[in-house]
Amino acid sequence: MDAVAERMLASIPGADVLDARVGPFYDTAGLRKWFRMSRQTLDAQARVGDVLCVMSADGFRLYPSFQFDARGILLPRLREVLTGLDPERLDLWGDAVWLNAPADELDGRTPAEALRTDRADEAVRLAAVAGSFRLG
Q: Contact 85/31 with Cβ under 8 angstroms?
């Protein structure tokens, strides 16, 4: 985990629980360096749901590392999942937790894990079902 992201995460009440469920995290500088892209490009990807970005309590952008594989390839179909789960992008922390929660419907896999397998369609469907129950 980037040192800056670690300090930012420490400022969030209950961060140890979130870190255990969602983390570790990259910060903006770490991802920009890894992908050699501008902050604006990274922000644009987050806005459309190609990358999941959560905000720390003090306003820093954090990127859960589960969405990247060892080569930096993002979760396939993440945009579809986020559109079904949280189209207004109202609860990105909740979305991150949902993506990492083992699902009985996926035989104990998390939706994030399923997106990298032949079970991706099921994960997308489950996101839409879960999103239909959101109160708002």
A: no
Residue 5 in this model has a pLDDT that exceeds 70? no
The alpha carbon of residue 42 and the mean position of all alpha carbons in its chain are separated, in whole angstroms, by: 14
The SS3 of residue 18 is helix
Q: pTM for the complete prediction? A: 0.83
SS3 track for 102-128: CCHHHCCCCHHHHCCCCCHHHHHHHHH
Q: Which residues lie across from 80 on neighbouring strands?
A: none
Q: Crossing angle of helices 3-10/28-35, nearest 10°?
A: 150
Q: What is the 3-state secondary structure (H, E, C) of 52-118?
A: CCEECCCCCEEEEHHHECCCCCECCCHHHHHHHHCCCCCCHHHHHHHHCCCCHHHCCCCHHHHCCCC
